[in-house]
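Budget justification note: compute hours in this period were largely spent on complex prediction jobs such as the one shown. Inputs:
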Amino acid sequence: MIVRDCPICAVPLAEETYEGFPVGRCPQCQGTLLDLSRYESIKKIPEKTLTELETEARNGFQGDNPEPIRCPRCRLAMEKRPLAVPGFDNLHVDLCRNCSLVWLDGGELAMAQLAHQATPAFRDKQEMKRRAAARDADPERKAAFDKAVAKLPDKSSPVREGLNEAFRDALLRIFIRPFPWWLP
Ligand SMILES: [Zn+2]
Ligand SMILES: [Zn+2]
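Corresponding output:
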């Protein structure tokens, strides 16, 4: 990505790699400029842990900029698109249709990732496998999980072949911290 200026602070964006993709990051407001397609990918396949995302969201979020901004590349007005994050109203992503670039204010990229992780679509089998691997790497959590599974009334529950929705949700509540973190 060629160096652009922050659409809010007008200082040059730093070229960074985020989740394996090049992005522009404002050193002042922590806002992020990136390709729309990469934004979609980053939301869906986070490599960062929930803790990392939470820390980033907490540290970076300074409020959503409600003012219209211009695309740092073509200078056309960017379009405000709602960003749905539980517990927050009126968050936006700014989109340039001309360049397919999106702008997210500080912390909002991590928040978009966290919000995506809260959707049922995210809790698919692949994701469960990834989390199961992380869980199994921690002996204490693995033991707790095995104990919980052993207590299931039906001993033949096909845990290894995939869990049904209700069971999965129950386990998620036990083994993954509540979401969103900013609500009591
Ligand atoms: Zn800025
Ligand atoms: Zn543009």
